[in-house]
Amino acid sequence: MTSVLYDVPGPKARLYSLIGSAAGILIILGVLAIAVTTLAQQGIFDADRWEIFYGPMAPDVWNLIGQGILSTLAAAAVAAIIAFPLGIALCLLRISLIPWIRIPTQVVLEFLRGMPVVLMMLFVLLVFATGQFQAVVVGLVLYNAAIFAEILRAGIQSLPKGQREAGLAIGLRSFQSRMSIEFPQAVRRMLPSLVAQLVVLLKDTSLGYIVGYEELLRKIQIMADFLGPDFLFPAFFVGAAIYILINLTVSRIAIMIERRGSKKAAGGVAAPSLRTGLMVGGNDPIAKDSVEGPDKK
Amino acid sequence: MDAVIASLPEYWDGFLRTLYLSVISGIIALIVGTLLAAMRVSPVAALRGFSMFYVEVARNTPLTIIFFFAAIVLPRLGVKFEQFEVAAIIALSSYTAAFIAEAVRSGVNSVPVGQAEAARSIGMTFTQVLGFIVLPQAVRTVVPPLINILIALVKNSSVAGAFFVLELFGYGRQLSNDYGNQVLWILLGVAFFYLLITVPLGLLAHFVERKVAIAR
């Protein structure tokens, strides 16, 4: 697409583009330089500020950070493991043929999706007086199960009608057809969105900070409070970098899965317009946009 | 229940502040996001690179971290805000802009190549192609996901409640401290006000998706 928007650049245009690039880089570098000098004036780059990461304190500091990473990952893993089957169950209820089951489920799903995750965590924490870990996990499970259910539903609806009809025609019950014909295809089709949602889940564990769960960010703050305000920036910098690195890695994996998935169309059926980015998924932009759709042009 | 009724003024104040945060950050994010998307398809390599880098990093950073940076780290570095709302708006709009950029970009990609080719062949420039041909068509595919992003923005604004801004979630925390025995109702009240924004927006997205979106 991009290349169609303008002529293949000739020598003159290439020169302009080069000048533009250089100017752009200069501007970005300039802004960075201003930021860095301002920071440097406050002594952010003094070696003693960063000593916590390699000096005598280092083992304790890294230990604390390690604990933070572990609790972040633990909450994400537990939540994902519970949320996925629950999502399948909710999806089954949501597409049930019986209105008495379908409609209440729809209402519940709308409710869960329209709610901030933090609010659910706080709700569980205060109303059921659980520990922070349980609150974080339950909040994440409720929200993500609803999103998983919607993603799977979109997947099932994107299947050609003939799949279900064929299943019923060879004598399968409705439920059997759902489980052995439609679900496997839906899961494969929606794998990119599902993995993208896992990234969201991982990101959302940081909301545990707000309800007092001692995940990475909270540990960083505890550390900064303990060591003094001078160390807030270094501690935060390292913590944020770790968070971003973990998320970037998982996102990369998601994109790889999507690339592979879009090559072989799920189940041998013509692939749907795999714009994972757009129509499918729940209320959450992240659910839908965090994996790039295959560039068609 | 009576705790909810007694604290209706707080709820209303929080509701308005949530709306305020969402609307202001939404507008900023829409502008910045569209700019980022335009940079992403522009001929200048540095702009493309910058936009790609920004979107990639912002989408992979938890919102809480961005808030932490804006509300706690920035003031320590000497950037002082009059109100914490400013920090919240900075955090929310810089986070949401990345998602909007992605949505707009995939909308641009969904416009058939022939459209741009035709525009190019009658001699339009890059700006003209984008402004008169591609973006107006992209908008139609982009509107439903954009509304979904705005819904998420409303929900995300709840994080501001944990960083010294008294919006719905902030009041929710405060009120559940004040009325320790009626936490259930207090929080359900907060939930109700969130649904008051998100459910109509969701319906709107659904409606627009069916009305405006064109099947390609």
Explain the overall architecture.
Chain B: Keywords: Amino-acid transport, Cell membrane, Membrane, Transmembrane, Transmembrane helix, Transport. The complex is a heterodimer of chains A (297) and B (216). Chain A contains 11 helices and no strands. Chain A is mainly alpha-helical and 297 residues long. Chain A folds into 2 domains: 10-41; 47-289, MetI-like (MetI-like fold), CATH 1.10.3720.10. In chain A, helix 4 (99-113) crosses helix 6. Chain B is 81% helix and 0% strand. Chain B is built from 9 helices and no strands. With 216 residues, chain B is an all-alpha fold. Chain B has one domain (2-211): MetI-like fold (Orthogonal Bundle), CATH 1.10.3720.10. At the A-B interface, helix 1, helix 4, helix 5, helix 8 and helix 10 of A face helix 3, helix 4, helix 5, helix 6 and helix 7 of B.
Index terms:
heterodimer; A: 297 residues; mainly alpha; MetI-like fold; disordered C terminus; B: 216 residues; 9 helices; transmembrane (chain A); transmembrane helix (chain A); membrane (chain A)
